[in-house]
Amino acid sequence: MILAVLPLSRFVLGVLCYAGKRVSRTVAAVGWCATAALSIYLLIATRDGATITIGLGGWAAELGIVVRFDAVAAAFSPLVVLLELAVLLYARKEDRAPLFYALLQFLLGAVFALLLAQDLFNEYVILELLTLVSFLLVGYERRPAQIWASLKYLVLASIGMSLFLVGVALIYRHTGTLNLSQIGGIIQGRPEADWIPLATVLLVVGVSVKAGVLGLSQWLPAAHSAAPTEISALLSGLVIKMGVVVLLRVSQVFPLGLTLQALGAVTAVVGVLYAAYAKSLKRMLAFSTLSQIGYLVLGLAIGTPEALAGVLDYAIAHGLFKGLLFLAAGEAARAAGGGRFEELAAHRELIPRATTTALFVGTLAIVGLPPLAGFGAKSALFACHPSPFVFAVFIVTTVGTAFAFAKLLPLFRWRRGARRSDRTSAYAVLAVPILFFIPFTVTTFPSLHLATGLEPLLVIESLGAVAAGLLLHRWLGHRAVRLPKRLFFLEEAVLGILLAWLLAAILLRAV
Amino acid sequence: MRFRVRPLSVLTVVAACAVVAIVLLGYHANRPDEAPYSTYVVRPVEETGAVNRVASIYLNYRLFDSVLEVLVFFVAVLGVRHYLGTRERTAVPSLAESEVVRTSSALLFPLAVLLGVYLAALGHLSPGGGFGAGVIVASGALLVSISLGMDAIERRFSLGTIEWVEQGALFLLLAATLLPLAFGRAALTDVLPKGRTGQVVSGGMIPVYNALVGVKVLAGSWLILRSFVRHRGEI
Amino acid sequence: MAFSVGIVLLGIGLVAIAIRRDLVIKLLALGLTNAGSILCLVAIGDRPDAHVPICAVCHDVLYADPLPQALVLSAIVINFAILALALVFVMRLVEQYHTTDSRHVEDLVQRDLDEGGQQ
Questions:
Q1: For residue A114, what pLDDT is reported?
Q2: I want to staple A272 with a disulfide (CB 3.0 to 4.6 A). Which of A173, A291, A364, A506 is the partner?
Q3: Element (H or E) spanning A66, and its range?
Q4: Which residues numbered 162-181 in A keep a CB inside 8 Å of some CB on B?
Q5: Does some domain include residue B44?
Q6: Given pLDDT bands bounded at 50, 70 and 90, which one contains residue C119?
């Protein structure tokens, strides 16, 4: 019963936020408190790995819509609560209109609805709602760059969802149900059925457009870097993970084979390559999100339950530190008068000390320095004994991330006299779980059985990767390489979707 | 028309043809032999009270999807209203020039209202439903604004009233979906009696939902149309 | 048959989005793509000699599957919302840049970013 209340109440609050112009901030705060309370209750109720399932309206699975609070939803709830708190604290100082808070409520309601969803068409509608709301939020400040970025996002996401819908049609034709558990049962009964590969390709490609997989998600760098700061934090930290969650659900039901490995590897490597040579901070963060999504997809490709736990762990960690980085980057860019690295370095004395600290903590976390968030999660993934290819991609991405983020080193010279920041509370909300990540995850998710522990081998690997990245930066960092931007234009993005579809079809033997 | 055949375009066309061919081949090669499932048609009609099985699906079994979809519509209305720019022309939109157009538009409006009310009220007995009804009545309102001008409508129903109606309908829809949960009932729709099958007063809450959705879509469509017309400055 | 038409429409829409440079035509093509996918979904519920699924007691004859029809209602509304909002954004872009050519818009946006700096 609570499961239905969670998303629906957010929508109600969204309407109230919009209708009651003067009280929208209070309503948003009340919404956060209610959500936090409900999440804590649900987390406690599922501590031992139990799941709560209800059929909405009391109808059975083949008639109505089923929602379930399972380990994935339990893993993401704290992330949503923390990110929302940070964004609300940050936005309080930005003086946003009631429309902003209303759209925020809808966004978070859709996120919760998606976490609970178990039904293919339900996921379709929620993904479209998520697309529309984040599209509006990306273009919120109505600057031409933002409008263009959000337009590209909408067009590509809509194409992806059309492909998803055709896949749903095919699946319904052959199974007669839209419920994922029932479809899984039918597929397990006849895993070699001929219709499965084609439907799988359509489904996976459709959802990967939203999940941030490269070849399909060329909208990501523009949209995440052009959006207003809080929205970038939410998009990179949370919304993109929702696509990965749907991909996860799909991968648990349909056999996906090599596709995820190929797509994940390409995403991770190309993302980190572009991040290394990005010219502005927010753009680099957006490309880095792409490559981290590659990490997550590779983790999904491994497929074992420990890998799944590692993926969830890393998704939360990434949400926390990418959110922190984006919030800090926004303020730093505004203080220094520009988002480019040259401008940030030139005016670094204008950036408040708290912002620089936040950037520092975020950087340490993303390169995987123990014992912060990134290390804990990466060790969970490494410990799953991935194949040599996947392991190599992991190492390359880690070194590349260190290489890319070494560009921020000039900012970290400790100096005095910087202005005070009034967004320290927002940073603190995110930074504390990052710093104390391992105890945080162990207490919050006992059922995930995460491989935590500061094993010496993993520590050495992490430190080695970071050192390698720093050394690379010292040798190669001065060359400005111009990578082709045409990859991310709209027309090439559509071609990319088609080519990725063909690649997936070949890999899944749908041809 | 100048044709510059770019290699990327050729590649796109080839790739798209390949995708289409693969999907078509895959679909036709794997058609299931037996007739596909019809889970909903064989359910007893007393379960929902709606003779129209499609209405029973989207307003009873899968009500959540419809609520989400109404939300999508609401977000669209918000987006159009707030992102179209604040430069609303205060000039009165001019009317259509032909007397024939103006008269016939005014004549069509009552028909549109009648059709809309019929579709919404009998959505559980015959094809129709709240969405189509709302759009039809909004189109009728647009016809009125062609013949009498947009100010005529706005003098009668101010912008604030229409906004309240829209948000109120959405709020009531969400509340009607949430409230049974608060009272411990899992079922979302058996609050009202089901009546006798085939009567207008049957189908439990389905006619109420149809009406709410119709009102919401009407108000929202009108707001969208109004925003575009006002932005352009003439109709 | 209808399913095949839907897939072909989907393909034509995709190609048009990629090839045509005018933003409004891209939007029309997007609508076409969505319409194609919706047609696929409806066509799935087809049976030979199907009847309309409105019946009090539905046993003797073969009825069309009502579920895809109900799903398509949501899909159509979503399609409408996407087109409306995309149109609004295209209008904003045209107001700003006075061109509907997507390449020009891309170049102008890039130029603005290079000059403006704040991103």
A1: 92
A2: A291
A3: strand A66-69
A4: 166, 170, 173-174, 176-177
A5: no
A6: very low
Verify whether the Cβ–Cβ distance C30 to A158 is below 8 Å: yes
Q: Is residue B2 part of a domain?
A: no
Alpha carbons A303 and A384: distance in angstroms, whole number: 10
CB-CB under 8 Å, C108 with A135: no
- Interatomic CA distance for residues A160 and A255, integer angstroms: 20
Q: What is the pTM of this model?
A: 0.93
> Is position B14 within any domain?
no
Neighbouring-strand partners of residue A67: A54, A117
pLDDT digits (tens, 9 = 90+) for C21-56: 899 999 999 999 999 999 999 998 887 777 888 877
Low-confidence ranges of chain A (pLDDT < 70): 1, 371, 385, 413-419, 438-439, 442-443, 445-455, 477-480, 510-511
Structural domain spans, chain C? 2-116
Contact assignment for B41 to C80 by CB distance below 8 Å = no
Minimal CA–CA distance to C14: which of A257, A497, A466, A172? A497
Q: Using the CB atoms, write b or e for A428-440: b if 16+ within 10 Å.
A: ebbbebbbebbeb
Q: Which of A226, A485, A495 sits opposite C18 (nearest CB)?
A: A495
Cβ distance C119 to A498 less than 8 Å, yes or no, reads no
How far is A332 from chain B, CA to nearest CA, in Å? 28
Could you give phi then psi for residue B197, rounded to 5 degrees?
-60, 135
Residue B172 lies in a domain: yes
Measured CA to CA, the distance from residue B143 to residue A334 in angstroms comes to 49
Q: Burial letters for B199-220: b for 16+ Cβ neighbours within 10 Å, e otherwise? A: eeebbbbbbbbbbbbbbbbbbb
Q: What is the pLDDT of residues A256-303, one digit of tens each?
A: 877 888 888 888 888 888 888 888 888 889 989 988 898 888 888 877
Q: How confident is the model at residue B136 (pLDDT cuts 50, 70, 90)?
A: very high
Chains that touch C (3 or more CB pairs under 8 A): A, B
CATH architecture label of C2-116: Orthogonal Bundle (1.10)
